[in-house]
Design goal:
This protein is mostly helical. Among the domains are: 82 residues, Orthogonal Bundle (434 Repressor (Amino-terminal Domain)), CATH 1.10.260; 188 residues, no CATH class. It has 20 helices and no strands. α5 packs antiparallel against α8, α5 packs antiparallel against α10 and α18 packs antiparallel against α19. The radius of gyration is 24 Å and the shape is elongated.
Length: 441
């Protein structure tokens, strides 16, 4: 059991290698330098179970196997420089897609790993965003003649169709579909790793991995599993980088930034979003990122910067690029612009204008977006409270709770619960006692 607790064992499993295979990869890394390594299964076992520290040369070879840059390796800090430990992340690189996908999938399979796989540090996220912003996507080169029968069009089309059907399911069905999406992502990771495909197929596989990772990240985020959510979004970023999809990479950074804001860290959110915006291309993508940036800036009380970002979000939402909106932000609408603008203004103290925008946005929202409606209703409730209208606030909060409980949306339920203490000053107001009782149930 001790082996499973060591960061090296977790990092090794994340790239799908057993101890024999890992030792072989280390020896090959040494050979590429014209050197020799005595790495064996037994030596790997000692590193993982007996507290033996690899020498500096062995650590350099280990770093190469994981795709960790040599500059990031400090032999004195073993094992804390390993990917997935100490809040660090797997760095972007030519062979980082599959390790990042494995890391995310393994995080879900072994939730007890949180001793080592704690939430990714803020500095690591901002640094990752900076690396993404300063590098172009990688040119994928598949090898259809490599190791047997190549992966063909028909199989990839089936995977794409299955993904589309699973990810389109309503919120209340996600508890049933999430394990299937995990399994589908595992299959895609295996195919990418095998390398038996042409470049066009490789690009489609990376796009699949992006979309699946993003969906799984939001599923975990809605359940409050933040470590898993961030690992999936990071894995999606690696896949987008490998496939050269800049807008999708910006989207995944935007998701990581949204999570940082949600967890009360708007400074990190701003750092990520500023870098994401430097690489986003489609106007709709830039609109969404500016809107999230405005929310983060408002949380820090930066009025002028907030208003500039809100203006940019509105401008880009209505700008034409001649290209269809990317699927990941096709839902972006005037409703989202109005409500999130209202939330930003609420944080800045412009309560009446904020309330007006939130109510307008809620009315514009299509009936199909129930989960978003529940969140918007909580925002409306908060604005009613700030206006000194507790009865209306209680009605909006109760409606939000009904929607969230009907569709199974834990994140929305948490929003209502977090707002509940603000009603304690109005125990005699109609609807407040009922709301508090339902929240406490």
């Amino acid at each position: 059991m001790a082996e499973k607790k060591h960061p090296l064992a977790h990092a090794r499993k994340a790239i799908g290698l057993n101890q024999v295979e890992f030792a072989q990869e280390i020896r090959q890394a040494a050979e590429r330098r014209g050197l020799r390594s005595g790495a064996t299964k037994q030596r790997v076992y000692k590193w993982e179970t007996e507290g033996v520290t690899p020498d500096a040369d062995s650590q350099a070879y280990i770093a190469e196997v994981f795709g960790v840059p040599a500059a990031a390796v400090d032999p004195r800090s073993w094992p804390h420089w390993l990917p997935g430990t100490g809040g660090m992340v797997i760095p972007l690189g030519p062979a980082s897609t599959v390790p990042a996908l494995r890391e995310a999938l393994l995080t879900t399979m072994e939730r007890s790993r949180r001793t080592f796989l704690s939430t990714v540090s803020s500095s690591a996220l901002v640094a990752l965003a900076g690396t993404w912003a300063s590098t172009d996507g990688l040119a994928l080169v598949g090898d259809a003649t490599h190791r047997g029968t190549a992966v063909g069009e028909e199989l990839v089309a089936l995977l794409e169709e299955t993904s589309a059907r699973l990810t389109a399911q309503a919120t209340e069905q996600r508890q049933h579909t999430a394990p299937l999406i995990d399994a589908l992502l595992t299959t895609v990771a295996n195919i990418i790793e095998d390398g038996r495909h042409s470049q066009p197929i490789a690009l489609r596989l990376h796009a699949l991995a992006c979309g699946l990772s993003q969906t799984l990240g939001w599923h975990r985020f809605d359940l409050g599993l933040h470590t898993e959510a961030s690992q999936y979004w990071i894995a999606g970023l690696h896949s987008a980088h490998g496939g050269g999809d800049r807008d999708m990479g910006a989207a995944l950074l935007g998701d990581l930034a949204y999570q940082a804001s949600w967890r009360g860290d708007p400074r990190t959110a701003v750092g990520i979003l500023e870098r994401a915006l430097s690489g986003a291309r489609h106007p709709a993508a830039r609109s969404l990122l500016h809107l999230r940036l405005a929310r983060a800036l408002a949380a820090q009380g930066e009025q002028r910067a907030t208003l500039r970002s809100l203006s940019a979000a509105e401008h880009f939402l209505h700008a034409s690029s001649g290209e269809p909106m990317p699927p990941w932000c096709a839902w972006m609408s005037n409703a989202d612009l109005a409500v999130d603008s209202g939330q930003a203004l609420l944080d800045l103290g412009d309560t009446r204008r904020a309330h007006q925008l939130i109510c307008e946005g809620k009315e514009l929202l299509p009936p199909s977006r129930d989960k978003t409606r529940g969140v918007f209703l909580v925002y409306e409730a908060r604005s009613h409270l700030d206006l000194g209208e507790p009865e209306r606030a209680a009605a909006a909060a109760q409606e939000a709770l009904r929607v969230a409980q009907r569709i199974g949306a834990p994140r929305c339920i948490k929003l209502v619960r977090d707002l509940a203490p603000a009603f304690s000053a109005y125990p005699e107001v109609q609807g407040v006692s009922e709301l508090l009782a339902r929240v406490a149930a």
